[in-house]
Amino acid sequence: MFKDIAFGQYYPSGSVVHRMDPRAKLLLTILFVVAIFFVNTYFGFMLTAAVLLLIILIAKLPMLSVLKSVRAVLFIVLFAAVINLFMIKDGEILWSWKALQITDQGVHTTIKMALRLVLLISGASLLTLTTTPVEVADGTESLIKPLKYLKVPVHDIAMIMSIALRFIPTLFEETNKIISAQKARGASFDTGGLVARAKALLPVLIPLFVNSFRRADELAFAMDARCYNATENRTKMKVMKIGVADIVGSLFIAAYFVAVLLDRYYFNGAMDSLIFGGLV
């Protein structure tokens, strides 16, 4: 049930993207996500998909690993698409039946919304696929370090994020084991209605919570036994440095962001009319 979820998993390939500074990857991911919300044309979505595909090829990631992250939210995408398709009443009516109707504006809005969600999840998943949880924690800690002057426990927050990211795939693996054990005892999770399937998951949640608290307790004892946080200033085994790849990647994403803004506010759909003609 959860074996194909790729969020939180790291895929080592030794590419230039993997070797980039985690601080740069965090900031560029945020900029990429913000840029997606400015996209409102099909040309902009094509440009975003091309940028995303180029990054995947440079990072030497299998396309299946990226698509697995989309599969985890596929139900949400389909549900939101259906709601938008029938709730938007503007534009020319293409199909109607009693109180239901589909308009051309509703179709375009639905397609763009689905593309935005898919590209958003795919782009965000590249961060965890190319960056280890420790690197994410170190990069986050470095970026929010100024908050130390406000007495914010920056290192503790970064460590919590690192542990959370590390345990996401572990929890999914634990869930699969519990479900397999329940199925071996005759339990069924694929039959019945929505309420019946929800009730069938109750025997899974109880041992999952018990195992989660047990793992957290063991981790706390292990950290305490190693005198974690006994010193005020902790050192890093790997010192983060901005390199050429970080500068080139920043310029590339910045150029993409500028192109998205130009397409939205300067061309204002002109590229769609040029490429697709009267279809949009």
Spell out the key features of this protein.
11 helices, mainly alpha, 280 residues, two-stranded antiparallel sheet, flat, 2 domains, 68% helix
Structure commentary:
It is a single chain. The protein is mostly helical and 280 residues long. The chain folds into 2 domains: 1-131 and 242-280, no CATH class; 155-237, no CATH class. Helices cover 68% and strands 3% of the residues. The protein is built from 11 helices and 2 strands, in the order ααααββααααααα. It has a two-stranded antiparallel sheet with strand order 1-2. It is flat and about 70 Å long.
Gist?
The protein has helices spanning 22-38, 42-59, 63-71, 74-87, 104-130, 133-143, 154-184, 194-200, 202-225, 244-267, 270-276, and strands at residues 93-97, 100-103.
Question: How are the SSEs placed, and which strands pair?
Answer:
Blueprint: H1 22-38, H2 42-59, H3 63-71, H4 74-87, E1 93-97, E2 100-103, H5 104-130, H6 133-143, H7 154-184, H8 194-200, H9 202-225, H10 244-267, H11 270-276
Antiparallel strand pairs: 1-2
